[in-house]
Automatic annotation (TrEMBL):
Record domain Glucose-methanol-choline oxidoreductase C-terminal: where: 392-528
Annotated ranges, domain Glucose-methanol-choline oxidoreductase N-terminal: 10-300
KW Flavoprotein (keyword) present: yes
Protein species of origin: Phreatobacter stygius
Domain of life from the UniProt record: Bacteria
Keywords of the record: FAD, Flavoprotein
Chain positions recorded as FAD binding sites: V88, V224
Name this polypeptide is given: Choline dehydrogenase
Length: 541
């Protein structure tokens, strides 16, 4: 029998990740609001949640990662991919690449053109600025004094300088800032760090208030299994913690902030979703919403690797005990050096072919190489140039595997399912080869290791190679998409309210109708900030 938690909450937030920490901060600013924040993961009290390079140890570790996997993907020649998602206070912002990327102004103007009032670039840019504490200070494009700390990288590599020069030699401009609304160009990524430590959503938004606001209660290690519903309204949540089933009651709203995977699971387990999916698992339909779990979009990166010589990479440093010891000393003494590295340091945004209206591919350049995260770096010096299609046309899905929350969901991204995506993938490999062939890199004698010189330049060979080397860059969005109430596939409206039932919102990356042109963590934070304002406004009515 379930135990009912004493009291009632004005807001119950399911998920203490990037979005959930922002929501908890904003909604508890009013002491009259009693807020319960529920997180399935643990506290972020492990050292590798804070040292930036800790992503190497957190991804693929059940202490920090949900350890999801995709189904075998036809577009990836039958391969299944690991699908990391943060399982900790701070969510994926505690294990991600720390790259600060808003996307392009046209991404948000497209949302506005879909009829989503208030989501155009001119609407969201002030929100991005308002949450920032940017190392460049307050300006036309950036803010200062906010909770979201943004800094420049604290390590440099000669190799990356030369790759940036190679980009300019192929006509891509060198720029200083990707976050002005047009990110076409080559620049070093700005990162969510503060003085050499990772700056997660938990550090920025939750920890400063958790011990100061009596109206905020945080339950970690608690899995939300389903929503409770009465008369067409969400009344609370049922959760499991330490083997005990608990019920928390809401007199206001329940807010799902568990991401494109977790929020989808909670909706479907609660009977909100596509009727045929629910029926397959014996779940009574509370609200037939065919869009739940559909519209999955992700950035597929094509990780090309080049062996080089004559310039330092992290590979040889990693395998030298003395150099590794110095890396630790440099970090301990100065909070600088390779231990502060994001997975990628240099970015390049460009067009896969001249017909594209704006940059549609992104390169993540790394002065290292490895077979996959969680495995050792290669013993030969090399760098990685990973290109991804920023606006894929393929659409996948995420659905529950059974009526048991403990069963991991069926994740089917459906990569490279469209001819357009296969053509862009082929062009990505061509552009990578063109980049590496520029004079700036000639002194290092780059040799293609992946996909390999035996792969020809014809579209069929390149598309197959893309399937062989493609992997997720961890940006799943869209499974509870925002749309007009007249759209039968929309899950939430422009105020992030679930259409067709009262007292429920979704506020996370799953509401994106189309994926943004770049890394998705900062856009998710913007959605949470904007969502919190909507919730507060609606609560006053």
């Amino acid at each position: 029998m379930a135990t009912v938690l004493s009291g009632e909450w004005d807001y119950i937030i399911c998920g203490a990740g990037t979005a959930g920490c922002v929501l908890a901060n904003r909604l508890t600013a009013n002491p009259k609001n009693r807020v319960l924040l529920i997180e399935a993961g643990t506290k972020d009290d492990w050292i590798w949640f804070h040292i930036p390079v800790g992503y190497l140890f957190a991804i693929g570790n059940p202490r920090a990662d949900w350890m999801f996997k995709t189904e075998p993907e036809a577009g990836l020649n039958g391969r299944s991919l690991v699908y990391p998602r943060g399982k900790v206070i701070g969510g994926s912002s505690a294990i991600n690449a720390m790259i600060v990327m808003r996307g392009q102004a046209a991404d948000y103007d497209h949302w506005r053109q879909l009829g989503l009032t208030g989501w155009g670039w001119d609407d969201v840019k002030p929100i991005f600025k308002g949450v920032e504490d940017h190392f460049l200070g307050a300006s036309e494009h950036h803010g200062a004094g906010g909770e979201w700390r943004v800094e420049a990288p604290r390590v440099r590599w000669d190799l990356l300088d030369r790759v940036r020069e190679a980009a300019t030699q192929m006509g891509i401009p060198a720029i200083d800032d990707f976050n002005t609304g047009d990110n076409e160009g080559a620049a070093y990524f700005h990162v969510n760090q503060k003085k050499g430590l990772r700056w997660s959503s938990a550090r920025g938004f939750l920890k400063p208030v958790i011990d100061k606001r009596d109206n905020l209660e945080v339950l970690s290690g608690a899995v939300v299994e389903r929503l409770t519903i009465d008369g067409g309204r969400i009344t609370g949540v049922e959760l499991r913690r330490g083997g005990e089933t608990l019920v928390a009651r809401s007199v206001g709203e329940v807010i799902l902030a568990s991401g494109s995977v977790g929020s989808t699971q909670i909706l479907e387990l609660s009977g909100i979703g596509r009727g045929e999916v629910l029926g397959r698992h014996g779940i009574p339909v509370a609200l037939d919403k065919p869009g739940v779990g559909e519209n999955l979009q992700d950035h597929l990166q094509l990780r090309a690797i080049y062996k080089i010589d004559g310039v330092k990479t992290l590979n040889e440093t990693y395998h030298n005990l003395m150099k590794r010891a110095w890396m630790g000393m440099e970090y301990a003494l100065f909070r600088s050096g390779p231990l502060t590295m994001a997975p990628s340091q240099l970015g390049i945004f460009t067009r896969s072919d001249p017909s594209q209206e704006r940059a549609n591919i992104q390169f993540h350049i790394q002065p290292l190489s490895l077979d996959k995260f969680g495995e050792p770096l290669h013993r030969f010096p090399a760098f990685t140039a990973a290109a991804c299609n920023l606006r894929p046309t393929s659409r996948g899905s995420i659905h529950i595997r059974s009526a048991d929350f403990a069963d991991k969901p069926v994740i089917a991204p459906n990569y490279l399912a469209t001819e357009e995506d296969r053509l862009v993938a082929a062009d990505c490999i061509r552009q990578t080869r063109r980049l590496v062939s520029q004079p700036a890199l000639a002194p290092y004698h780059p040799q293609e290791y992946l996909p390999g010189p035996s792969v020809g330049d014809d579209p069929e060979s390149l598309a197959k190679a893309a399937g062989d080397i493609g992997t997720t860059i961890f940006h799943p969005v869209g499974t509870a998409k925002m749309g007009l109430r007249s759209d039968p596939t929309a899950v939430v409206d422009e105020r992030l309210r679930v259409i067709g039932i009262d007292g429920l919102r979704v506020v996370d990356a799953s509401v994106m109708p189309t994926i943004t042109s770049g890394n998705t963590n900062t856009p998710t934070l913007m959605i949470a900030e904007k969502g919190s304002r909507m919730i507060i406004e609606d609560g006053r009515r």
